[in-house]
Write a structure and sequence with these properties.
heterodimer; A: globular; B: alpha/beta; FAD/NAD(P)-binding domain; 3 domains; 5-stranded parallel sheet; 22 strands
Chain lengths: 292, 581
């Protein structure tokens, strides 16, 4: 096996408040290694509103603007404009929002900014629910998953919203999926996004040990299985039309991914089969998009 | 700024709620209920190696492109990598964890590569310095004797090896045909031992020209005279003309002497000597048939060699037991009984039972008996206990006579090159302890590989090296997500037609590129090779890089004990234990 090379610079300090084994903490640490210290981040309400620490402290070694839940896209547009007025075209503006702040509450501001092709990187840290407030369902929660608002007696009947397709239809210059188990892929996409101007969207899957009901040491394994099972394929979309899939050599049944997570422990075999069919269909759909 | 900030008045606060300090004061290590720590463990291959080679260690060196470093590491434990890489039965490979995934690493192939590649670089071993005043005599220049002499020299003793015959190497030279072990390879490795400072005196047999009284100048003696007497079958006719002992025949062939043999040769036995004889006579243009009293499954000869023998045209007749060797019209006529397999005997193999009245005859020009070897006891000093045809020793090789140690085939029924080398090494350590007045049992215990029995002289010489837990890493402790299936590389093999035309080597050494690919397949079980997974995946930036015997360290001030580093370590080199509170 090859040694994984990542930059040694650390822009996430220690003493932060993420839970043990937090996927979003791994994601932030890797992301900042790629984006570098000359980055301003906007945090609409999410886990990462809490994780850096409480005032007057911050474990992040970059400037952060905390923003209202709805306003990721608009606050970042304003920060960009302010920097430009000051003549600082070098500093990078990035949004770090949760799936709630992206798929649900912040979609309007994001859509508006993307439509204007505002110059920032929007990172959706997707842990498939409102995990910071105690695991409520979002429109990123996958089919049949348990949350406190979709209990086992009333499981989530709606499949996950296809956020990547929505962003692609805004014809932004760059959109990509990434996850923490593939650090080199993640770093490459962040660095690529950094070089592009306009709205760039990174859909980052970050497993959440308490919310997904997984042991803290399994975070990376679950992230890896999400890709290998094709629940969360790694791909890029350029200008909304050109798809590139980072295909994995080993495809495994979705059951391997589901059985590790307590939020799926109630599933019947039929439900698992339905999830597998959906995953297969979506994969075929993605392949078709990548071919044309 | 690892401190907390206090405002005495509201006016001291900033107008906008801007952060003023970092979170380093917040020691999240206090959350931890389990503690990860770096702990190198023992790979199963090196536990299985009777020599005690640091297999994962040298293979990782090859993978890093440092073949010379690999050679240095191999030579720490084994003076004969070129020999072992060719003729050892490689029990390491059957224990290789990769075998549970796809196919085991070709450890023997890599060991051979290291030896041959280093010699092609002109790599020479450095001469040792005989700083200690005691002198040690070694009787016998086979693998056990030379291994003992080699390691004693590295422990700074002056060593003289006495060899009864006119050539060195013992069984390695006379017992192993050169199609398996070319004489140049043997000569090369023996000359390296001599370069180190070992003096070998040939033509001095113990008992005749050399009594133990003559060795009064030596403070310790290691006897490794081997097992060179062919065991008889005790059947009528075995002393007749054209009936040869397997070992005698091999000796003549291996020393390049002319042998007179008929065309059709019957070889009695199922061990490695029998196979070596059969394959050798095939190369002399004869026809060879092996007669073995049990079935293929019970055959003590190594599987690979049986296969190669069959490829080369050796016939094997199973469940056949000769009971008389007669003569008819210038031909040997073997009267045989057919056998069937009965209950298991003390060796764990099914006992052959004759079928009454099944007598039949086999005719041959020559008959070779290769039914095992015994030790020569006539010259052994009094006071050395013997049992079941072996000299009895303690675990460290010491005999009942003070200052006299023994090893190799003389003391063990496991008659392999690797066991002989291992026993010579252990005796070297025991002699060092004896001469320094140290407890050898304790010294051995300190440097056992896993639970033993093999030991690491490297760790005896370097007690400050990175510690290694005796825990043997199992397949289940590895993380297979980091390894793609790949095929084991096989050494190039000469075509059969070419093989049987002479005594040239059957296989050839890996080319460098192939060796590198094969080395990269190694899981490096339990041995950190700095893949960086722990550092890359730590959510709390609590894996610190540093200089020293461990290149990584956990920052326990901040580590929350999530266990990601432990789980994502591909090779089980990180342990997790419950936090004591």
């Amino acid at each position: 096996m090859r040694k994984t090379e990542i930059p040694v610079s650390e822009n996430l300090g220690r003493g932060h408040l993420a839970c043990a084994g937090c996927g979003a903490a791994v994601g932030m640490r890797l992301t900042l290694k790629a984006l570098g210290e000359k980055t301003v981040m906007v945090f609409p309400a999410s886990c990462w509103s809490i994780i850096p620490g409480f005032w007057p402290y911050s474990s992040l070694r970059i400037p952060v603007v905390h923003a209202g839940f709805v306003t990721g896209g608009s606050t970042a547009s304003g920060v960009r404009a302010a920097l430009d007025i000051r003549g600082d075209h070098e500093a990078l503006v990035a949004v770090w929002a949760g799936d709630g702040g992206t798929f649900d509450i912040g979609i309007q501001a994001l859509s508006g900014a993307a439509e204007r092709n505002e110059d920032f990187i929007y990172i959706c840290n997707d842990n498939e629910g409102y995990m910071n407030t105690g695991t409520q369902r979002s429109s990123a929660t996958p089919l049949f998953a348990w949350t406190t608002t979709t209990p086992v007696t009333r499981p989530n009947e709606n499949p996950k919203k296809d956020m990547m397709a929505i962003m692609a239809d805004h014809h932004i210059p760059y959109a990509a999926t990434a996850t923490i188990a593939y650090p080199e892929d993640l770093l490459r996409k962040m660095e690529k996004a950094k070089r592009i101007r306009g709205t760039r969207f990174i859909h980052l899957l970050s497993p959440c040990p308490p919310g997904w009901r997984i042991p803290s040491e399994r975070t990376i394994q679950v992230s890896r299985l999400a890709v290998r099972c094709r629940v969360f394929p790694l791909y890029e979309i350029e200008n909304g039309i050109s798809y590139t899939i980072q295909e994995q050599s080993r495809a495994v049944p979705v059951k391997e991914y589901l059985k590790l997570q307590g939020r799926f422990s109630h599933l019947t075999d039929q439900e698992i089969d339905r999830i597998q069919e959906r995953v297969d269909d979506e994969w075929q759909h993605l392949l078709r998009k990548a071919r044309c | 700024m690892a401190k907390q900030i206090h405002f005495n008045k509201a006016s001291e606060m900033p107008d906008v709620s801007t952060s003023l300090g970092d979170m380093d004061w917040n020691k999240t290590g206090a959350w931890r209920t389990q503690r990860p720590f770096y702990e190198d463990k023992t790979p199963p291959c090196s536990v299985a190696c009777p020599v005690g080679n640091d297999i994962a260690g040298f293979i990782q060196k090859i993978a890093q492109g440092d073949v010379e470093g690999a050679w240095n590491l191999v030579k720490e434990e084994n003076p004969f990598p070129g020999v072992c890489g060719r003729v050892c039965f490689h029990p390491c490979e059957s224990k290789c964890n990769r075998g549970r995934y796809d196919e085991p690493i070709s450890i023997h192939g890599l060991e051979r590569f290291v030896s041959d590649f280093a010699s092609s670089l002109g790599r020479k071993i450095k001469k040792g310095s005989g700083a200690r005043k005691e002198k040690v005599a070694v009787i016998g220049s086979g693998p056990a004797g030379l291994s003992c002499a080699y390691h004693l020299t590295r422990l700074h003793y002056e060593v003289t090896v006495f060899e009864s015959s006119s050539f060195t190497g013992g069984m390695l030279r006379i017992g192993i045909p050169s199609y398996r072990l070319p004489k140049e390879v043997l000569d090369r490795e023996i000359s390296e031992i001599e370069t180190l400072g070992v003096e070998i005196r040939t033509g001095i047999p113990l008992g005749e020209d050399l009594g133990l009284d003559d060795l009064r100048d030596y403070q310790a003696v290691f006897i490794a005279t081997g097992a060179h007497r062919s065991r008889g079958l005790h059947i009528p006719g075995e002393k007749g003309r054209a009936v040869l002992s397997g070992l005698d025949l091999l000796r003549q062939i291996n020393l390049g002497k002319h042998v007179r043999l008929g065309d059709k040769i019957a070889i009695i036995g199922g061990g490695n000597t029998a196979i070596d004889v059969a394959r050798s006579v095939i190369r002399l243009g004869k026809r060879a048939t092996l007669l073995y009293r049990r079935s293929r499954e019970e055959m003590p000869a190594f599987e690979d060699e049986v296969m190669e023998a069959l490829e080369e045209g050796v016939k094997i007749r199973y469940l056949v037991n000769p009971i008389r060797i007669g003569q008819i019209d210038g031909l040997k006529r073997l009267e045989c009984l057919r056998m069937e397999l009965g209950e298991k005997d003390e060796s764990g193999r099914r006992r052959p039972v004759p079928i009454a009245g099944s007598n039949f005859f086999i005719e041959a020009d020559s008959v070779v008996i290769a039914a095992g070897e015994e030790i020569e006891v006539s010259f052994l000093p009094r006071g050395m206990e013997r049992r079941d045809g072996l000299v009895l020793t303690e675990r460290d090789g010491s005999t009942g006579v003070k200052g006299i140690f023994a090893g190799g085939d003389l003391t063990s029924s496991q008659r392999t090159v690797a066991h002989a080398i291992g026993s010579g090494k252990k005796a070297a350590l025991a002699i060092d302890c004896y001469l320094r007045g140290k407890d050898s049992e304790e010294a051995i215990r300190q440097i056992l590989i896993g639970e033993g029995p093999a030991i690491s002289i490297f760790r005896y010489l370097h007690p400050d090296e990175r510690p290694r837990s005796p825990h043997v890493v199992t397949f289940e402790e590895l993380n297979m997500d980091y390894f793609e299936p790949s095929k084991r590389r096989r050494e190039p093999r000469n075509p059969i037609k070419k093989r049987i035309r002479g005594f040239g080597e059957v296989t050839s050494t890996f080319p460098e590129g192939i060796a590198l690919e094969e080395a990269e397949r190694c899981f490096s079980c339990g041995r950190c090779n700095e893949c960086e997974n722990c550092y890359v995946f730590c959510p709390d930036a609590s894996i610190l890089k540093r200089e020293g015997i461990f290149s990584r360290q956990v920052d326990y001030d901040f580590c929350k004990g999530c266990g990601i580093c432990f789980f994502e370590c591909p090779r089980g080199a990180i342990s997790l234990q419950e936090e004591a509170r």
